[in-house]
Amino acid sequence: MNTLTIDVCSLADAAEEVLQAWNDGLVRSGTRHSFVTLELLQQVLTSDRWQLIDALCGAGPMSVRKVARRVARDVRKVRGDVDALIAAGLMRRAAGGGVEFPYDAIKVASSLRIRNTLDAIIAPFPPLPIAAHAPIRSAPE
Prior knowledge:
Helix content is about 45%, strand content about 15%. Helix 3 crosses helix 4. It is α/β, with parallel strands linked by helices. The protein has a single domain, classed as Winged helix-like DNA-binding domain superfamily/Winged helix DNA-binding domain (Arc Repressor Mutant, subunit A, Orthogonal Bundle).
């Protein structure tokens, strides 16, 4: 299976991993696409773009029009998202025409190490109002 691993990794961490692999003499297998910040990952991988990746994952090359039909979206908007994914290096133009996501599966690797990253993930979700919770009652005896 051809799997793409997507993660968030600073340039310093990526350089350290390359140096470690060089010193160890070990070749790590697999394809990896790293974003330098969580914000950049969220900017590039919107929910509409995830939908396109899901539709193309393991499907082989297809025209943008066919992709748009598959996800039931406007062709122009799909083309814009496809262009953004190509620019980000997550999708490519197929040799015979159309586009493709050349992987069968995606693995999203995450490692939250700082409070600001956690805050960025939680921020879009409003807190639940206290009144929405039913009071806890003891069981009848």
